[in-house]
Design brief:
- With 94 residues, this protein is α+β, with helices and mostly antiparallel strands.
- It has two helices and two strands.
- Strands 1-2 form a two-stranded antiparallel sheet.
- Helix 1 runs antiparallel to helix 2.
């Protein structure tokens, strides 16, 4: 693979009940939040790095989680399942 290439990976591609969908997206977002919190703590303790960007990202992730939960709740109330697709693109950069 050449260093200037990028690659896309399929992360989620399935139909879920609202309960399953809630578990999938909540677990995924909570994992990202935990990563940021651990990274913040580590960087703050080790190198006294500014963690404001990461704190902002955690707030954004919490807002996203709440919005997704509200959408999933609508599907539950109306008796619908949910089709969830998610890809991750990874690219070499300089």
């Amino acid at each position: 693979m050449k260093p200037h290439e990028k690659k896309e990976f399929k992360l989620i591609d399935n139909t879920f009940t609202p309960e399953e969908a809630n578990a999938v997206v909540t677990t995924l977002i909570n994992s990202k939040i935990a990563y940021h919190n651990l990274d913040d703590f580590s960087n703050f303790v080790r190198v006294d790095r500014n963690i404001e960007h990461s704190k902002k990202r955690v707030s954004e992730l919490i807002e996203t989680k709440n919005a997704m939960k509200a959408f999933i709740d609508l599907a539950h109330e109306s008796g619908h399942n949910l089709d969830i697709k998610s890809n991750i693109t990874i690219e070499f950069i300089n």
